[in-house]
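Give me structure tokens for this 132-residue protein.
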Amino acid sequence: MSKDKRWILGLVILVLAIGALSYFGFKKSDSKKETSAPQVSGESTSEPYFDENATTMYFYSDYCSWCIKEKEVLAKLAPEGYRVKSMNVGKDQSLWETYSIKGTPTFVAKNGDRLEGFNAEDKLKPWLDQHK
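Here you go.
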């Protein structure tokens, strides 16, 4: 076998090996995701501000930077008894259309009133008080 053919064969084997390692590495990372319990809209979590029976729904995604900041505000309000119903649009895509959600974070009260976008404690707390 000529030197050029050996070089090409070696390159093909290297590309196949990299492809196989990438494929199996990807499959392994997917299996880790499947083993964690999925969050379903309305499902109670360990967050102190989530309550299945709350009258206000909180629509969010785990990957939304504003939602992460909003959760910090909710965590500050939780010791005072403020609770919202968990509605994770990142895990349940049907919530977008079902509740006409345009963006996250969004709060929806049982009477249909909405508070959209990030809200600091000084705006969120009175709104939640108004919609108990």
